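Hey, I'm writing a tutorial for new members on how sequence and structure tokens pair up, and I'd like a real worked example in the thread rather than a made-up one. If someone can provide the structure for the chain below, I'll link this post from the tutorial.
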Amino acid sequence: MNGGDRHQVVLHVDVAALQGSGDAACCGIEHGPAIPAETARRLACDSSLVTIIENSRGEPLDVGRKTRTVPPALRRALRSRDRGCRFPGCPHTIYVDAHHIRHWACGGETRLSNLVTLCRFHHRAVHEGGMRIQVLDDGALRFIDSRGEVCSMPDPPSGSVADLRRQHSSRGLRIDERTAASRWGGERIDYDLAIHGLLSRRNHSNFEPSLRRYPPPPL
């Protein structure tokens, strides 16, 4: 969430699509494919904008100035307030976007009370995934998924550490300091062997690649 442009992707969007009344054919990446209207709305949440007025033949009549939907000063205030993604339990603090709770194309104001910081995953969940955000009377946010269920923080485990270990043991779980450690030793991957293994699992066959055909790669 810095003040400059992180990258540039030119996107042509019809105003009706941003307002929710257009279809996917009205949105497209320059010299690229068409994209869904809701994806265009997500990208337009936190980007620089150049307004181009065109005639019915697509010929430009007027090109406006480049503007930012979220100016740097407001972005700093938003970063200070939210300190990362506001979705309950999400730990992401970098690679986040400023999301308009009520989209600016539908009359939503670019002000702190109408903005929330979301990571890329939850930003997609709000736009393309059908998740909704409600602002409560006290200013708190309520996230509601596409099934209408409220998303909340998971309950912390109850009981002592010994009780938790007994629960894990009863379920056949062995969790220790090595559980999340990678077994990769830095060697080069044998892609041929990996692809054969994936294909054999997909086809539910009894194919077992012979290790003699695939000697370990040199370090």
